[in-house]
Amino acid sequence: MTVLDAISTPTTLAEKAKILGSAFEDRAQALDDTDTFAAENFADLKAAGFLEAGVPAELGGGGADIPELSLMLRTLARHCGSTALALAMHTHQVAIPAWRWRHQGVGAVEPLLRRIAAEKLVLVSTGGSDWVGGGGDAIPVEGGYRIQARKVFSSSAPVGDLMMTMAVLRDGDGGDQVLHFAVPLRSPHVRLEDTWHTLGMRGTGSQDVLIDGHVVPEAGVSLRRPAGQWHPVFQVIATIAVPIIYSAYVGVAEGARDAAVVLAKRHPNAHTIALVGRMDTELMGARLALQGMLDVIAENAPAADSVNRVMMGRTLVARHALAAGELAMEAAGGAAFYRRNGLERRFRDLQGARYHPMQAGPQAEYAGRMALGMEVERVY
């Protein structure tokens, strides 16, 4: 019986993730050792219905809500952080239009959601390289825009179908606009560069994607917004995306904790026992911060305030997850230094939590300005 056969009977999304996770953990070290994208894992996720899990059931998807998607990612990340983070980058690109369809009545997103469900599309996010400021150039041509851009941190690019991205339409008078659109990754004007050789999360396939002359038709532009400042739609994006992404890091920290406990049980002493207790305390902090972010989403009121609270949660998740990982390494002792034990990989994977927006400096400025009643439109 294959791992997919094992999840063929009705189970929750998290239960399916736990079953798949055991197979993913068997593959995780080899992916890490060779900087190889988790293609086999993604094939299993695709076959098991994880790609369309966040699409509303009315549109042919799995109908999972955001807390279910978060738990799914946490569960997978206990076993393979790279697979979970790459899936999180797809999942938040599904959850955002699903939320807009359900809570804002935005019908324009329905065709995309139906395509994800029917075709099991993999969406690639470029938010890490674009964020609020946008990146790349949109050059006006007849009927649309020619795109010239390099998009970094493009997770799951090797198997991606559509890149959900943006570019800047330059205006010499200072009125630059960011255009949002999708680019087919199989376009002859798109190519990948093998740049993803990193400290951690080595199996995410987050290669650089070069867009060299692909033309986006005028009708393909889904959003225009002023460059370099927050827009109401981007407040939706930030509020929903960040908790989904950081669910993966909480799961990695949980996996590190479990691995450390196994190793620490070999020769427990008073010092080790205290380290394990401190580790679990830090992990509780990460879990509580993640739950706080999910609670913000549940309010269904994206705005500057929701961005502020989610980003404070993002900082706290990163802080506590990183601390838990450090304590896991120390509690496990010298055994943690061996790759075969899987703990140092998780420690390295956790370091990625430092780098997603908003990083510590902008986040603190945003929170401080909110507290003092100052403008935050250009803080990101």
Automatic annotation (TrEMBL):
Domain Acyl-CoA dehydrogenase/oxidase N-terminal: 24-97
All residue ranges annotated as the Acyl-CoA oxidase/dehydrogenase middle domain in the record: 127-211
Top-level taxon of the source organism: Bacteria
Pfam families, per the entry: Acyl-CoA_dh_2, Acyl-CoA_dh_M, Acyl-CoA_dh_N
Database matches in InterPro entries: Acyl-CoA_DH_C, Acyl-CoA_Oxase/DH_mid-dom, Acyl-CoA_Oxase/DH_mid-dom_sf, AcylCo_DH-like_C, AcylCoA_DH/ox_N, AcylCoA_DH/ox_N_sf, AcylCoA_DH/oxidase_NM_dom_sf
Keywords associated with the record: Flavoprotein, Oxidoreductase
Gene Ontology molecular-function annotations: acyl-CoA dehydrogenase activity; flavin adenine dinucleotide binding
Domain named Acyl-CoA dehydrogenase C-terminal: residues: 248-357
Protein name (Swiss-Prot/TrEMBL): Acyl-CoA dehydrogenase
Lineage: Bacteria, Pseudomonadati, Pseudomonadota, Alphaproteobacteria, Rhodobacterales
